[in-house]
């Protein structure tokens, strides 16, 4: 009996030491924020919050209300603007489920280090959200666009970045850890995907935009912005963006083609991409060697060719290699002209020769643009040609010729 009392006293004492849910907050007191838009004008921050309407997302009843609401506020600092949102929002912002942070192009060109400092300090926030820049627009306008297929526009943008990065390579999904590391490094600069409003922005804010089979206004990922330190300095086109993502090992699947016959094309689906980047310093001459190995399947054939012939396959592989090498070399040279190392070649040189890197670190932008030697090699392997070895185009063309005669 005495033993039981001692155990009971010990359990009670230990229970008193437990902290419990001292900082618990009820969901009914919080506004679950899915996206933040950040603009800056005349020295003040404008914050736009895209907030879930829980009843609409749950889908328990059918109403005419939207799945999200938009609140906007201006302040002298970013945190002040967020707190001032409570004057228009009935609940305090909860950022743990954030999916997207969108910079207006103006603040992106001015510098985003202050914003990143706040986002990295907030203990409520996770690090699994993505960044984008509202290309030639404000973040506020971008977040107001209603999107089809996805009820929540932030989910549409995040899913678009993830899918396009994996399957087409023209844009990338950038996390806060990756962005801070790139901006604080002297051997690699940052890049962030641009999103444009395609169509009429005013129509995009109405529910009518998602009630049509062909939405008038859409959000479209278009190219990637090149940053120098924390400032946006320019935009890459689709080909340049693909090259950057491929060399940075951010692509698992994409599509490429080569000419075939007089005016036809053969398209291949690339399902394995392995870039290897090595660096050396000979004397005071830095050199980068890039070797990209790709494995692909033939996807479609718009010409007459015998895919059972090994010689034809070898010719196709050489054609793909030459085409990709030419395209990527052109993109690398164009980006080097900006003096901004978004490939991370500087990090490769630093790992290869630290003593040399310490001497040139402060001048790497100029060396990257004018002195660095870059050698590019491509190895392309065709694994499968599909279930049809020979295209039926030959028979169709012969039939057309006979009818014409």
TrEMBL record:
Q: The organism sits in which domain of life?
A: Bacteria
Q: Which Gene3D superfamilies match?
A: Nutrient germinant receptor protein C, domain 1 (6.20.190.10), Nutrient germinant receptor protein C, domain 3 (3.30.300.210)
Give the keywords, sorted. Germination, Lipoprotein, Membrane, Palmitate, Signal
For this UniProt entry, what is the primary localization, expressed as one broad class?
membrane
Domain Spore germination GerAC-like C-terminal: residue ranges: 222-386
Alphabetical list of InterPro entries matching this protein: GerAC_N, Spore_GerAC-like, Spore_GerAC-like_C, Spore_GerAC_C_sf
Signal peptide feature range: 1-24
Q: How does it sit in the membrane?
A: Lipid-anchor
Domain (Spore germination protein N-terminal) spans 23-192
Q: Localized where?
A: Membrane
Describe the family membership recorded for this protein in Swiss-Prot or TrEMBL: Belongs to the GerABKC lipoprotein family.
**What is the protein's given name?**
Ger(X)C family spore germination protein
């Amino acid at each position: 009996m005495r033993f039981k009392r001692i155990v009971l006293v010990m359990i009670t004492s230990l229970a008193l030491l437990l902290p419990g849910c001292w900082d618990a907050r009820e969901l009914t007191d919080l506004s679950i924020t899915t996206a933040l838009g950040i603009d800056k004008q005349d020295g003040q921050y404008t914050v736009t919050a895209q907030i879930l309407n829980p009843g609409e997302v749950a889908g328990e009843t059918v109403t005419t209300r939207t799945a999200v609401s938009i609140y906007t506020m201006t302040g002298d600092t970013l945190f002040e603007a967020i707190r001032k949102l409570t004057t228009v929002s009935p609940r305090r912002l909860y950022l743990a489920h954030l999916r997207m942070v969108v910079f207006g192009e103006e603040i992106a060109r001015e510098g985003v280090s202050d914003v990143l400092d706040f986002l990295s300090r907030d203990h409520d926030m996770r690090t699994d959200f993505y960044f984008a820049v509202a290309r030639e627009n404000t973040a506020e306008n971008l977040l107001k666009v209603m999107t089809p297929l996805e009820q929540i526009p932030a989910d549409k943008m995040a899913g678009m970045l993830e899918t396009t990065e994996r399957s087409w390579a023209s844009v990338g999904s950038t996390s806060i850890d990756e962005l801070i590391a790139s901006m604080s490094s002297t051997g690699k600069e940052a890049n962030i995907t641009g999103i444009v409003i395609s169509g009429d922005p005013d129509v995009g804010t109405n529910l009518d935009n998602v009630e049509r089979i062909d939405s008038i206004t859409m959000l479209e990922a278009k190219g990637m912005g090149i940053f120098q330190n924390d400032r946006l300095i320019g935009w890459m086109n689709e080909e340049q963006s693909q090259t950057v993502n491929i060399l940075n090992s951010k692509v698992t699947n994409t599509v490429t083609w080569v000419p075939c016959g007089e005016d036809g094309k053969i398209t291949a689906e690339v399902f394995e991409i392995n870039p290897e980047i090595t660096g050396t310093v000979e004397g005071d001459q830095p050199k980068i060697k890039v070797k990209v190995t790709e494995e692909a399947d033939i996807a479609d054939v718009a010409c007459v060719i015998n895919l059972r012939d090994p010689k034809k396959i070898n010719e196709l592989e050489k054609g793909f290699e030459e085409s990709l090498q030419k395209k990527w070399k052109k993109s690398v040279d164009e980006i080097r002209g900006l003096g901004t190392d978004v490939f991370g070649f500087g990090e490769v040189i630093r790992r290869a020769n630290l003593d040399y890197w310490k001497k040139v670190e402060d001048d790497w932008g100029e060396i990257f643009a004018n002195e660095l030697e870059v050698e590019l090699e491509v190895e392309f392997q065709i694994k499968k040609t599909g279930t049809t070895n020979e295209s039926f185009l030959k028979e169709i063309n012969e039939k057309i010729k006979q009818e014409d005669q």
